[in-house]
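Quick note —
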Amino acid sequence: MPNAKFVNISDDIYSMRLIKSDAEIELLRESAKWANLAHSLLQDYTAPGMYDYEISLRLHLTPP
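Predicted structure written out below.
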């Protein structure tokens, strides 16, 4: 792309991040719920000194 040119859009990106739509807010809430669940499961399935493969095995071998 020899004719391509770079344009500074940092101000546009900043202003786009300031205001969230209702849909974006709902997606952020849903994401937070899943992150909280993942954090809780990690607390349940991990212990000091465990290796990542041990945690993975516990997660995959424990019935839901």
